[in-house]
Design goal:
single chain; 9-stranded mixed β-sheet
Length: 179
């Protein structure tokens, strides 16, 4: 069972940021639950977790980082998309920087990993915060200029993606689901 976590403060935003993820999960043949970031979640009930993005000016989820700390004990895989990337970065003590980026940009994949192969991709960005550096617990997988676009938590199947793979790079989500 896959858990899809909405970081949207406004339910209407879920049509843009959660529904496309749920459709990909369903198309891959997996069952899923959708929960909201402010609900009490027992992560151990799931094999994988996808934390979705939200609107560019919606930052309420950043006030709920503590509700995600249990993920550090989670044995399954986690994919954080945009806001989810920010949540994973924060629970592993990394500092976000103000980096506003909207649109399609080229991303350099520096090394192969289970969700993406080395090379270059085009990706759709819609965010106001990201990472320029990481602490020792994260490994940089991809960059766009000086922004870290994909990271992996060392020794875990946890990935953070600052862009929205549901728009141009669905295979990243499919690869994560099929790990």
């Amino acid at each position: 069972m896959i858990l899809i976590v909405s970081t949207c403060s406004h339910v209407m935003s879920e049509e843009e940021f959660v529904r496309p993820i749920a459709e990909i999960v369903r198309e891959c043949g997996y069952n899923y639950d959708i929960r909201r970031y402010y609900e009490k979640i027992d992560f151990k009930d799931y094999s994988k977790v996808i934390i979705c993005g939200t609107a560019i000016r919606d930052f309420a989820y950043l006030n709920s980082i503590d509700s995600f700390r249990d993920l550090t004990e989670f044995e399954g895989g986690v994919l954080g998309i945009c806001a989810g990337y920010q949540i994973i970065a924060r629970i592993y003590s990394n500092e976000l920087e103000r980096i506003k980026k909207i649109g399609v940009y080229s991303v350099r994949i520096l090394k192969d990993c289970p969700i993406v192969k080395k090379g270059e991709i085009r990706a759709y960005f819609l965010h106001a915060y990201a990472l320029k550096s990481v602490k020792r617990n994260l490994e940089v997988i991809a960059v766009q200029n000086d922004e870290i676009c994909i990271f992996k938590v060392k020794k875990r199947d946890f990935y953070g993606v600052s862009f929205h793979p549901e728009v141009l790079n669905r295979e990243i989500i499919v690869n994560f689901l099929n790990l």
